Amino acid sequence: MDSFNNEELKKHLKVLKELGFEEIILDKKFISKDEILKERKKLLEKINEEIQICEKCDLHKSRTNAVLGEGNIETRLMFVGEAPGEEEDKQGRPFVGRAGKLLTKLIERAGYKREEFYIANICKCRPPGNRTPTLDEMEKCFPYLKEQIEIINPKVLCLLGAVAGQAFLNRKVKITKERGTVIKWNDRILLLTYHPAYVLRNPKEEETLFKDIKRAIEIAYKGL
Ligand code: SF4
Q: What distance in angstroms lies between residue 60's CA and the mean position of ligand 1's atoms?
């Protein structure tokens, strides 16, 4: 069966509706993997264009680049941090500073490559001086990440730090007490852990962060 373009598909759906069909189940096997990936890339590019000119909160005033995220857009696991830092703001890429290097190192130690997963942040613009984003800034930016999650559709979200946890759970998170916690969130699984920047300041926690990352990967591939 040939795949439809959007206009053709709309016409066919209209005819079926007129014939009295209330519910139509689309058989995914008729949509090629390439088409799905192309569509995902297009949708993510659209979000990227939006955030580069977004002025919903004051963080736009001091940004060099808004940072969308990067990685495998078919992944089962997404890492979510707080916001870009100085290096991320300069390069327009997530987790490329010291904390990012630690995250990459721990993913590799678990036997994987960073490119196998997707990495993003709650806020897309760098807070001045790397301060914690305010609640208002997080609330205004979170919808972009939610769209990314819908598009990429990961099974597991590994939340790096209290701020990421707070944005998803809509409450204060005490990460030293709650790290390692696994929580169901809509149809997905959240795993709370430390932000790598925290571990850089508290090197004795590196092993704990490693274990959490490994567990998030295991849940993503094997389930709970
Ligand atoms: S942080 Fe998010 S909401 Fe604020 S200006 Fe940047 S993209 Fe817009």
A: 6
Q: Is 51 in the pocket of ligand 1 (CB under 6 A)?
A: yes
Tell me, using a 6 A CB cutoff, whether residue 90 lines ligand 1. Answer: no
* Residue 66, ligand 1, Cβ within 6 A: yes
Say how many Å lie between the CA of residue 46 and the centre of ligand 1.
15
Distance, in Å, from the CA atom of 51 to the CA atom of 66, rounded to the nearest integer, reads: 6
Query: 29-222: which CATH number, 3.40.50.2300, 3.30.70.1130, 3.40.470.10, 3.30.390.30?
Result: 3.40.470.10
- Give nearest CA residue, ligand 1 atom 7: 51
pLDDT in tens, 162-185: 999 999 999 999 999 999 999 999
Q: What is the pLDDT of residues 56-91, one digit of tens each?
A: 999 999 999 999 999 999 999 999 999 999 999 999
Per the document, the length of the chain is: 224
